[in-house]
Structures are given as structure tokens and as C-alpha cells.
Amino acid sequence: MALKHATPMLDELEKGPWPSFVSDVKRMAPKSAMCEDWLGVMELSYREKEGHWKHGGIVGVLGYGGGIIGRYCDRPDLFPAIAHFHTVRVNQPASKYYTTEVLRKLCDLWEPRGSGLTNMHGSTGDIVLLGTTTDNLEPLFYELTHEMGMDLGGSGSNLRTPEGCLGKSRCEWSCIDTQDLIYDLTMEYQDALHRPMFPYKFKFKASGCPCDCVAAIARSDCSIIGTWRDKIRIDQEAVRAYVGGELVPHAGAGGTEKRAFDINAEVIDLCPTKCMEWDGKNLKIWDEDCTRCMHCIRVMPRALRPGLDTGATILVGAKAPILEGAQMSSVVIPFMKMEPPYGEFKEFVEKVWDWWMENGKNRERLGELIQRLSLREFLKACDLTPDARMVNTPRFNPYIFYDPAEVPGGWEHDAVAFRQRHQA
């Protein structure tokens, strides 16, 4: 079936080695006028080098201030089927576990109510339903909640949909139950999720271990990273098996074949704090110097495991804007036990929100407010004591200044002791 709109520029995007979104939309076009006109407006945008979407009008569903992003086309004369093209965000299940039955029901619900196009998933994690009209919003919302038991996600100046990694359901390294935590936070903060009340957006993301598979440290206003505060568990026999070529290390270009493994070159020398030593028979780790980077555990998973006294490191202030560049989050609580009902964590969160809502400017993220008023003021508001672990190089950090003479032992003393220990 021939398309209504010629798309020579979009066609070029189908010629590369990778799957193309253009092909996906073309498959939908024969049964969706919205998809046909969407192809037309995209071709026009490519040709004129100008976007033809506008974000205007307040659209939503009764009782909610978020979850629907209003989209309109500024050329309804050429593309009437997408005069309205609103986006619906749906709160994804924890860790994005679905049954095929649920996915089929979601698609069956969406196709007659919208364009049929979906995005699995948005950067916050939501199921994104792309393109519907204002008169379809309430019926769609009713069917979504009453027939599927699902809810809208966050949009606007509110709590965005909390997101977490697979956690203990699939990962042997997970130090916290990310699924339970994310579900608990989602249910606890429903008002903040559905009714805009903040200066700008706020995101929780939880990773079960320092590998940070959901990139929380780069993308969330509050990052919850599973960690441990006792010693890394070591199986010395397995370490020797890796060195002897009996086990396959997860490093280098060796693939899945057994090979000679240089533990010094591939593990010891790559440790950021040089807290490890191999004497030819046993691996020694000075855990007090370990920064939990996980490199050694990733390379030798059958020999090394996280400790048993587990909890989370709490960081704040990340964002990943396109124009201004990324801002990574900063450690504010090096270790917190993270167990239901998460009372200590929620108490911290509510102090953060109170300070941010009182001092934040319109469209100012938490990290930007901390930059403007200082980490010192943030810590005071949250009743937190400054700690050297909150910063990377304390004497060079613009937020907090440490005088070596005021630190027990002094930084120079610690550095000398460190070098002497590793030279011995």
C-alpha cells in the first residue's frame, strides 16, 4: 500500500545497518492515519530544518496534574490526523517485569485510542504511549486503571516515576531489594507523583550494587546505590584457579575461552586506590581503602563477592541535560541500612524536599540549588555532618574546605602511611 506522503529524506534512515524507527512507523501507517501524518510532518521537519510540534494547552485526566504531555502540530491543515498528538506516560512495573499477556492487553487498549506507537521505555522508565487526542484521554485512563490496574507516571514539576534495576530477582551482587524499595516509594509518594508541587522534576533511581546498571549517579536527583561496609568475601582457591587459567575471567578480549590470566595487570594495577596485593598464593585486600568500584568482583565473580553488612550509599544532585552538560550526583550519606519500611531514608527525603521547595527557583533542579547555595547549606538543612567521603578531593572541592591540621592524623600522614604499607 502506497503511503500518502512522500518521504525521501526519512527513507535514507532505513538504509543503514541498524533497525530504523522509520520502518516501524511505516508498518503501522496502513492502519493508522496518525502514523501516516506523523511520517509527513517528520519529512517536512527534515526538509525545512524546523520542528513542527508545539507544547501548548493544559491537558490531562481528572484529579491528576501529571502523566500527560500535551503535543500539537502547528500544521493541522497539512496533517489533520495529528492536530493533537498527546503523549501518555504509564508507570512501569518495578524492574520492568511484564507478562506477554499484559503487553498484549496494553497494545490492544492503545491501538484504538491512539496512534499505536509505543516507546519502551522513556529515560525515566515509563511506558510511553505516543500520540492520542484530547477526547481519548479520559476513556484511555479509565481502561488503563480499571481494566489493567496500571497507573500514570510522572511529568511536569513533580516526582517522576521511581526506577530501579533488577535487584535481587536476578543479580547475585545486589545489596538491597530494589524492587521492594521502588514499589514502596511509588506507593508512599503518590501525591508528589501525580500532583506537581516542586520547583521542577525530581527523580529517584535505585541500583542494587555500585555497578549502577540504571545509571542513577548520572541521571537522578536522589541516587540509591547498594553497597556494603564490611569486608569483600574472598575465595582464595577460586582466585588461584583464575590465575592458573582454570576459570575464565570476565575481562579483556579473551571471550569465554580459558586463557592465561595476569591478575596484576588486569586487577591489581587497575584498582583505583591500590588496596589489593597478590603474593603469588593469596589475594590481600585492605578493605578500609576500598571504594567499592566493583572492578575486581566483575573480573573474578567466582572468587570475590560483596560483603554481608549491606545497605546503600545516598547521593543527590544529578541531571543529564542536553544543552548544559551532565552533572553527576554527590555522596551525602556514605552508608544507610535500607530495610522496610525505609523510615530513615524517607525522613531524609522529606527534609530535602522541604529545603528545596523553600529555596528553589522555578525549574531549578536540586543539584543546581546545591550549587547555588552550597553543599554546606544543604547538609545543615538535612541535619547531616560533613564527611570527607562526600567529596572526591576534599582540599580542592569548592563546597567544603578541610584543613589538614584539623583532621585527625592529617591527610599527609595518611598518604605516607598508605605508601609505606604498600612498599613493605
Strand order of the largest sheet: 7-8-9-14-15
Q: Any idea of the CATH class of the largest domain?
A: Alpha Beta
Task: Label the overall shape.
Answer: globular
CATH topology of the largest domain: Sulfite Reductase Hemoprotein, domain 1
Specify the structural class.
Answer: alpha+beta
How many structural domains? 3
- The name of the CATH superfamily of the largest domain reads Sulfite Reductase Hemoprotein, domain 1
Count of extended strands: 15
Q: pLDDT under 50 segments (min length 5)?
A: 394-399
The major pleated sheet works out as:
5 strands, mixed
What would you say the CATH architecture of the largest domain is? 2-Layer Sandwich
- β-strand amount: 5-15%
Organism: Desulforhabdus amnigena
Protein name: Sulfite reductase, dissimilatory-type subunit alpha
InterPro entries: DsrA (IPR011806), Nit/Sulf_reduc_fer-like_dom_sf (IPR036136), NO2/SO3_Rdtase_4Fe4S_dom (IPR006067), NO2/SO3_Rdtase_4Fe4S_sf (IPR045854)
Domain Nitrite/sulphite reductase 4Fe-4S: 155-383
